[in-house]
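Exercise 7.
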Amino acid sequence: MAKQSLPLARVYGLLEPGPVVLLTTSGPERPNIMTMSWHTMMEFEPPLVGCVISNSNYSFELLRSSGQCVINIPTVDIAEQVVACGNCSGAALDKFATFGLTPKPAGRVSAPLIEECFANLECRLADADMVDRYCFFVLEVIQAWHDPAVQNPRTMHHFGNGNFMVGGETITLQSKMK
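Solution. The predicted structure, written as tokens, is:
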């Protein structure tokens, strides 16, 4: 899969619909993968993403200490691995090896990209002011990658209790307001 650089001003279009993502972090023993659906775009350019990561989650301290991560955006093609990554801890488990996902070196951060995901957003921690109180991290996307062959990606959107909606249909509406 040959990915091309994506202009940072277009990052909002990857996250605006709120897909389930795989957040990767680097750790002292190995990289980790965390399934996450609590995120939001906060700014267009530079792209800022806010996300909540429980302080009981293994990825919490890895992100806080390294100040870097990658938001990997999967499609429904790897739904089983996405759910499996969210149902166990990476503290004692290599999720890449266990769930057959491929780590690839990132360009600007130490956390790896996940090759099987159609888009990858390399991030640095931009603001940690709300981490202690709300477990809310503000991340700045500093490099974005996407597979241009993937048109209308069939992303997963979590509704809770193991229920997901699959996105992928695109419609265009013209505003009637002037």
